[in-house]
Amino acid sequence: MKPILIESIKNNLRTLRLKDMANDLDAILEIAQREKQGHLEFLEALVNKQVEGLQARSLERRIKQGNFPRNMNFENFDWNFQPGLNVENLKNLKTLSFIGNHNPLLIFGKNGCGKTHIATSLGIEACHAGFRVKFFKLQELLLHLYATLVDETTAEMIKKLTCLDLLIIDHIGFIRKKEEYPSLLLDLICACQDKVSIIITSSISLEEWGKALGNSTIINDIVDRIFHQANIINIRPAKSYRTQGPHAPQIASTEVEKSS
Q1: Among 24, 77, 175, 176, which one has the highest count of C-beta atoms within 10 angstroms of its own C-beta?
Q2: pTM for the model
Q3: What are the start-end ranges of the E strands in 141-251?
Q4: Secondary structure of 131-148 in the HEC alphabet?
Q5: Is 27 helix (H, G, I), strand (E, B) or coil?
Q6: What are phi and psi of 70, to 5 degrees?
Q7: What stretch(es) of the chain map to CATH 3.40.50.300?
Q8: How far apart are CA 10 and CA 16, in angstroms?
Q9: What is the CATH T-level fold of the domain 74-243, as seen in this structure?
C-alpha cells in the first residue's frame, strides 16, 4: 500500500475518532502481509484494536470515578496473612454474583485487619466486569449528604447514587455526629435497597452502630434493611497489617549484657 494512501487512511480514521486503529495500522498491515491474511482477517485485527482501546479507557474511567484508595487490589492482597479470614467465602464473592442480585456485603473486623483492602479489591473487580462503582468513607458520605440540605439537592444526590451498581461505604465506627446523619443514611439505604449492592465495612459490631452514629431507632431500621439477604465477612481472630504486617515498623531488640 502506498505511503501517501496509508497516511490518508490514518487521517480519516482520526477524523472519525478511531485513533487506536490509526495508531496501529502500520503494525497490523505488516502482520497481514507477513502472514498473507485475507481482507476479513486484517479488518478484524484492526477493529479489535479499537475495541480493546475503548474497553481499556472505559475501565480506566470507571476506576477513576470510583474514588478508590490507591494500591489496593487482589493482586497485592495477602491471602494467607489473616487467620480469621474465610478465604473460600471471599473467593466466592469475587464472582460478584452478589452485585447482580443487589445483595449487601458486610465486612467486620478490628482496625487494620484489611477490611478496606477487601472492599476496594471487590470494587476494582466490579469495574473490570463493567459495573459502576463508588467508594466513600462513611464520614465523607455523610458530609456530602448533609451539604445537600442547604440547597435541597439531597434527593438529586441520592438518585445519582442509586444509578450505581455497587456503593462502598467504608469504616462505620465512632464518627463526628450530626443530628441529621441517621435520617440521611436511612434515606440512602432505603433508596438503594433491591437496586444497588452495598458493601459496608465496620470496626464495631451491629449493636454498637446506634451509639456510634446516633439515634438508635433509625439506625436499627438501617441495620434491619442492610442485614436482610446480606453476605457477611467476619474477620475473627484478626491480625493488624499496620502493626504485624510485612511493612509494619520493626522494634529492634537489644540484648542487655549482665556483668558477672
Answers
A1: 24
A2: 0.86
A3: 166-172, 197-202, 231-234
A4: CCEEEEEHHHHHHHHHHH
A5: helix
A6: -80, 155
A7: 74-243
A8: 10
A9: Rossmann fold (3.40.50)
